[in-house]
Amino acid sequence: MADLPQKVSNLSINNKENGGDGGKSSYVPPHLRSRGKPSFERSTPKQEDKVTGGDFFRRAGRQTGNNGGFFGFSKERNGGTSANYNRGGSSNYKSSGNRWVNGKHIPGPKNAKLEAELFGVHEDPDYHSSGIKFDNYDDIPVDASGKDVPEPILDFSSPPLDELLMENIKLASFTKPTPVQKYSIPIVTKGRDLMACAQTGSGKTGGFLFPLFTELFRSGPSPVPEKAQSFYSRKGYPYALVLAPTRELATQIFEEARKFTYRSWVRPCVVYGGAPIGNQMREVDRGCDLLVATPGRLNDLLERGKVSLANIKYLVLDEADRMLDMGFEPQIRHIVEECDMPSVENRQTLMFSATFPVDIQHLARDFLDNYIFLSVGRVGSTSENITQRILYVDDMDKKSALLDLLSAEHKGLTLIFVETKRMADQLTDFLIMQNFKATAIHGDRTQAERERALSAFKANVADILVATAVAARGLDIPNVTHVINYDLPSDIDDYVHRIGRTGRAGNTGVATSFFNSNNQNIVKGLMEILNEANQEVPTFLSDLSRQNSRGGRTRGGGGFFNSRNNGSRDYRKHGGSGSFGSTRPRNTGTSNWGSIGGGFRNDNEKNGYGNSNASWW
DNA sequence: AAAAAAT
């Protein structure tokens, strides 16, 4: 290969470019690097490096996409050089690199202890790690639209997933794909961008991890701009980045990734705030092929130069609507648009969101290219194995009502939602005083406390968990028998997420909510949910709802489900705002537009769906 | 209005 001289000249050009400041020291402390436009980095040549004089390097990949630009020079791709791939300080890190030898994936040996840790031991053959009993999920309606939508798969082997991955999937007791996975796996495999309206519990994590790992297991590591590695400070070059709104959710995705990368060359990492950054940096050093992160901590690591996004093939935004609700948009845009992330065309982007409001549509327009829109029916609310009860309880009576409720039917795990962090603590103390085994999870507790609370709850050490919104969505806690909305949320979607924490795995669950005059705003949505799930509607609620509609506005648009649809359907096929085509001309073609629906219930009409909405679940 | 998230 004649790229060595090339290298040198590039280096010297770069050096000149950067040398405008003459002899004065241009050291930039790590945390200040990449502020401002010229993002140069100092990099100390490795000892064995024959190239001298090239101290400065442009951050790889910004304009040049996935190959790291002129620093994407590849060492010979042969014999025993596996450790040169994507490992900072090549000689120091070998363990997972050893699983990619001479262009082949060599799975590591089995490890009984690790296997038990990752997959656990389950006597129940129907046990499934995310609490889904698949047979009960077959009727979740899914609708896919966009250009050239791939046909959904029927099982994991139809276009086969990677062999090792299949073994791990079996270890995790997955038997067949969930409805989301049936659609998302071929979509991701085909390299398409995806916007999916789906909730946790639908199996969406596997929906993107499976095809992603299949591809990574097969293609192996790719070379990194080795010169960009400083000898002292190594850098992670993940191939896939998953952004999640909360630390718990990030951890959960990471744990799933650990299962499915067992014995493979791919090493997952997780970073989030509230935990010592040093440990996380060391983990990144040890190899970081898939990175799960909350936005704040990732930005921190990017600014410290510990992570480069130049090699990203896959970008996943999980719970995108929540991330925007939490004000993460600037940070997400910084990560995606202002660092060294490959451009839209040079990466594959998958967005998941429970709803599809206009700000998410804009994000989709900016981050996705010719995407497929997938909408997946709600898992929780449609399920009739959750008994929903609404009790009228004034605020001052809530404590005693709760005690009544608990003494009447507290068995298994009870999850209690409150609105404020203060109330979470106060109620937990109260319950402990009453000799209940209660613990709390909310944003003012330290990360360690949150983790302890969650694992105590999961392990039944504390069978009551009092939680704020931090636990409402996404958290996967199997076997919750009773969800109590001590305070009702103001957002009906939050309500659905909350009650969806129970009644999983085909078990029956109970959701009890304390309602009073402070909850007027949720009446309409609540009525719809209760009706949809064939639940009893208390008379005080139907009375209120009748009063509301008499006095107020009539419902616009006519559809029974409109207030909950949140525009979460593919606005592109409904004419939309027009902004779609105008900013991205390449997407304006309409020729191959199609829509594939699968698993639809047959009782659309009965459920109040007009024909106009028939393609939406 | 509250919660969450980088320190």
Automatic annotation (TrEMBL):
A motif (Q motif) lies at residues 154-182. Its EC number is 3.6.4.13. Keywords: ATP-binding, Helicase, Hydrolase, Initiation factor, Nucleotide-binding, Protein biosynthesis, RNA-binding. Residues 1-90, 542-617 are annotated as: Disordered. Residues 385-545 form the Helicase C-terminal domain. PROSITE patterns: DEAD_ATP_HELICASE, HELICASE_ATP_BIND_1, HELICASE_CTER, Q_MOTIF. Residues 7-17, 79-90, 580-594 have a biased composition (Polar residues). Residues 154-182 form the DEAD-box RNA helicase Q domain. It is an enzyme of class 3 (hydrolase). GO terms for molecular function: ATP binding; G-quadruplex DNA binding; hydrolase activity; RNA helicase activity; single-stranded RNA binding; translation initiation factor activity. Residues 185-374 form the Helicase ATP-binding domain. This is RNA helicase. It comes from Saccharomyces pastorianus. The lineage of its organism: Eukaryota, Fungi, Dikarya, Ascomycota, Saccharomycotina.
